[in-house]
Write a structure and sequence with these properties.
478 residues, alpha+beta, OB fold (Dihydrolipoamide Acetyltransferase, E2P), 8-stranded mixed β-sheet, 16 strands, 31% helix, binds 4-amino-1,4-dioxobutan-2-aminium adenosine-5'-monophosphate, binds magnesium ion
Amino acid sequence: MGPLQIKELLQQTPDAQSVTLKGWVRTKRESKNAIFIALNDGSTIHNIQAVAAPGQFSAELLLTVTTGSCLKITGQLVASQGSGQAVEVKIDDIFVYGTADVDSYPLQPKRHSLEFLREIAHLRPRTNTFSAILRIRHALAFAVHKYYNDRGFFYLHTPIITASDAEGAGEMFRVTTLDLEKLPRTDEGDINFKEDFFGREANLTVSGQLEGELGAMALSKIYTFGPTFRAENSNTTRHLAEFWMIEPEMAFFELEDNMDLAEDFIKTVISYALENCKDDLAFLENRLAEEDKNKPQNERSIPLLEKLNFVVENAFERLTYTEAIDILLKSKPHKEKKFQYPVGWGIDLSSEHERYLVEKHFKKPVILTNYPREIKSFYMKLDDDGKTVRAMDVLFPGIGEIIGGSQREDNYEKLLERVHEVGIDPETIWWYLETRKFGTAPHSGFGLGFERLVLFVTGMANIRDVIPFPRYPKSAEF
Ligand code: 4AD
Ligand code: MG
């Protein structure tokens, strides 16, 4: 089906067999003795070199073969004369599918800034960096499904449109078909959502967890993997308004089991990328090393593959929130008043605190548990002391929080109390509360931010560069 991909052609033994190449021109180089065209179809980071003799094609045709143009080349696969590639194609014929005007095609064979590439997100997958990222992103997504499928989890499709706010964060995108120019009003003058499409207020989901829990209470082990939406106005390198989240939810798992699963899951999918994305990771590692050359010695990063192998091979540090606060209180930056935000039991850790623990103190991934109830979601199981909940956050170097999760409150009365405490109307989640009335069971789960994982694995610095078409405040162009 279809032509062979360049990735496959590059692996063939050259025997002057006839081959057809289809792809986009990366570079064209003319020398006295030959014309070299480097073609790429996105199947691999490597280009295939196609070679023609001078005078074999008209000057008119060759003028249309420029960076970005799309070609069909037929020819013979032969051992390469030059160094740098094992095989090349001796061209018999060139057909130009589409030209790319040299003066207006924005991607020229030189290094473009990532900021500039964000402005041309429709073309950036044609660069080495982005095609490498997109292939790694694909491999990680595949590894996620494989991981759960191999372990008896069922992929549950939780709704994108919802009437509940799972995280109680109140930062949701509204979904409506009401005419914004002529909003229907109740007698009291409020907007009458009874006339809206669903007969009630609806939003894009911030998490599939609540519905995921319903699935776990029947299928035992489920996971979701879908887009989630948060209308928080965070212009950071770690936040998107639309991001993909993987949320496993398991009946009969307690906090310990949840931590074991989270650690094994992350290590397994990173290992999959190490095994299956060697060329792309090597390319990105080199890219980072090039960037680092301009930095002072102490600001240079650990080589990418070394960093990934380190995470796979070493146990994550596990400690409680209370222990973490003690470490922070005794830390140099705290004593020297170098932290921007104050430290003390009860605070919501800010990223400077998380990064101190991970990057300076433990120098490895950390799982923090048992956070104060006040700073965590209503559904987390209360510890016996009544002060903390069975929460767990996995913190990664350079990223901060990559996973957030918990054991869930499975006691109906205690859960209802928390619902009231945080001001959720129990009527809006009656179905969620009923699982605690009918055959409740201990259960746990977590959410992994997929882009934060891709960010870590690719070594990129900005989350906007690891999703094809990023959504963030004032940006939804493509
Ligand atoms: O910690 P969060 O908010 O947890 C939940 O949504 C739970 N319902 C998960 C669960 O227990 N099933 O989000 C989970 C993860 C974070 O650790 C982070 O990796 C990622 O989602 N995340 C974001 N990623 C990109 N952009 C954002 N705005 C993100 N907000 C959270
Ligand atoms: Mg969180």
